[in-house]
Amino acid sequence: MPGEAQIPPRSIAGAAFLADPALQRLFDVVETPGTRLRAVGGAVRNTLIGVAVADVDLATDAAPETVMQRARAAGLAVHPTGLDHGTVTVVVAGCAFEVTTLRADIATDGRRATVAFTDDWAADAGRRDFTMNAIYADRDGTLFDPCGGIADALAGRVRFIGDPAARIAEDYLRILRFFRFHAVYGSGEPDAEGLAASIRARRGLDILSRERIGQEMLKLVTGRRAGAIAAVMQEAGLLGPVIAGVGRPRCSAACWSSHGRRAARSVRRRRLRRFAPSPRRMPRGLPAACGCRGRRRRRSPQRPVLPVGSVPAPCRKSCARRSTGTAARGFSPGSIWRRR
User: Fold this and answer.
1) Which of 132, 177, 266, 302 could lock 153 by a disulfide, CB 3.0 to 4.6 Å apart?
2) What are the φ and ψ backbone dihedral angles of 104, each rounded to 5 degrees?
């Protein structure tokens, strides 16, 4: 594989997640003599530092269509959850695994990337955020570490891959991930280059949704070093804007002044309307109840108009009371209404 010869291999043989029969079954299905499937990211990192593994992400040099074809041929359920980005979800024995084809970024806008599929493992590693997240493991536990992530993970160093400014410009959420990973996995002071690049690119946080910011901050505050990292963010001028809703308003001062004037006029109109006399409405339609109600009122669409002379059951007692004097003379409630 490209870029693999010069990397000294290390192993996590015997890792609990690799011994999962469902995962081994997936290795059997996807791997062939010409293709390879590897675990990558959090499962490998957490195994190295002794943290529980929550889920297993997998990378392969096979095309997404090839992965789906092989999985379906083996009788496994397949869901194309992110086909444009090369990700398919394969369900094995009730366990869902995300399998992503190796990628290289073609264009980025600070949040999303346009990718092209590749078979170069080093190129796929180079587009990831931190070195500790770019460690791959074969089914037997042999590690492939093209970015030096093993040493960083064991030392608690959260370090961007390559140029920190370039990695952040690809996805501005990485600013918050940089601090969150320090709170959860880091030790000592944050990487100076990464911290400086995060401060310079802080205006990029404006394009992020509140939901994504909230998710990252919730994960940060549960980290073992949350207090220390929050102090670093405060000193760097990043904590206040994030908590307050991220950055300045996009409108100019003149624009916001115009908004304020329009809002004030709207408030004044509502206050004046409260004291203005309401227009008189003439009642329309006939009563929808029985004929004992002699006044006119608006017809209710939920209560149909009854034929003249018919009396609903709930109104019979009141009709009888009101028509006591007229019933003796041979009048019915319906006839009273007709005479009126």
Assistant:
1) 132
2) -135, 135
